[in-house]
UniProtKB/TrEMBL annotation:
This is Trehalase family glycosidase. Keywords: Glycosidase, Hydrolase. InterPro entries: 6-hairpin_glycosidase_sf, 6hp_glycosidase-like_sf, Glycoside_hydrolase_63, MGH1-like_GH. The lineage of its organism: Bacteria, Bacillati, Actinomycetota, Actinomycetes, Kitasatosporales. It holds the Pfam family MGH1-like_GH. One of its GO terms (molecular function) is hydrolase activity, acting on glycosyl bonds. It comes from the Bacteria. The keyword Hydrolase applies. Residues 18-416 form the Mannosylglycerate hydrolase MGH1-like glycoside hydrolase domain. SUPFAM superfamilies: Six-hairpin glycosidases. Belongs to the glycosyl hydrolase 63 family. The keyword Hydrolase applies.
Amino acid sequence: MLEANWTGTSTVPSRNLYPHQWSWDSAFIAIGLRHISPLRAQTELETLLAAQWADGRLPHIVFNPSVPLDAYFPSPDFWRSSTAGRAAGAPRTVQTSGIVQPPVHALAAWLVHRADPGLSRARGFLARLHPRLAAWHRYLLHRRDLGGAGLVSVVHPWEQGMDNSPCWDAPLARITPAPARSFRRADLDHGAPEDRPTDLDYGRYVRLAADYRDGGYRDGAAGEHGDGEFAVEDPAFNALLIASEYALARIAEELGAAGSARRERAERLTATLTERLWDAEAGLFRCRDLRGGDTLVPERSVSGLIPLLLPALPRDIVAALVRTLGGPHFSLGDRARLVPSYDLLGEAFDPHRYWRGPAWFNTSWLLERGLRAHGEGERADALREAVLDLADATGFAEYVDPYTGAACGATGFSWTAALALDLHHRRPAPRERQELDKSP
């Protein structure tokens, strides 16, 4: 599957639906590729990071110039990165989007290095990537701290990766949608309309992206609110940044520098995440809507479980997250075979519509690591087996019905294949702890 989606320098998520390079997709893909071709895994990340902007941002799409403009929307002529993004330092030699995606990249780079340290050192892999990864984190921590408390904000639902989550319904309701006649949705050529975001939601996505573009992709500094109508502190996005801060500490140490400052920052960010986004009554983390009265969004999403990855999370919060994962709202191991993307009991739950209920393989992979990191070996083993079984049974589907395991979205999806490959090769002992912070 990964061979079929390989372009020569990177891997597309899906040949038809997503024919370019996507940011966090490539990070997950590299994690799987490291087991069969560490060189190709390194190339995957190098290609992505070569498209980094001068301000440090890593764009969520790197466009392939050989793909027709009408194959995907929004296309390069919508984003206009080389002109609209000039002040922010967009590259001139490649077209990209102007928004970002979750920062899984340093974690991926560290795992890829560990797969073949000799090759990595011979090629100077980490030495070349480290400055770019550090600039990426610096951009997020300084330019995207829109709430002023230390956490990163997303300025568009596409940045968080869980595009159509009900968590965005209230923040998006304030956005005037772009007229339907002003754009053509290429995604409906390859996916069932009932599985995809509605036209109304899509119109709001387009409006937000166009406004950000027309503002020169400008971000407010820490403590500034700027002009954007959408700014949300998301638990999964911040948890992945923290996990990658730990990985950057290891990368620095591998290169002969100190990593203690990054570990301390990761621990401070964990404390801030808990202080700002933890909801003890619900037993999970929630999104904070900075433009909606600086309040927590009431929806329960898989995003609120992803901080289980973090090694410095207080024990009582770990225990509560594990209970929530197996409880009625997510029902893992009972009614649900993989982790649903949204509350099974929520009014907006839909087992097939994009991120409004279906189970995704990448979030289950992240939670498998989190469970194992905190000594929940049995639960982690069961989730690992479910991922492997359903990936194979569905032809490596993009996502699945959480109840039946039926395939939804695209088949032949790259991160599903890559993460199944990772779990297949990584056969952990029952008490093994994952590489989050304390393993050598």
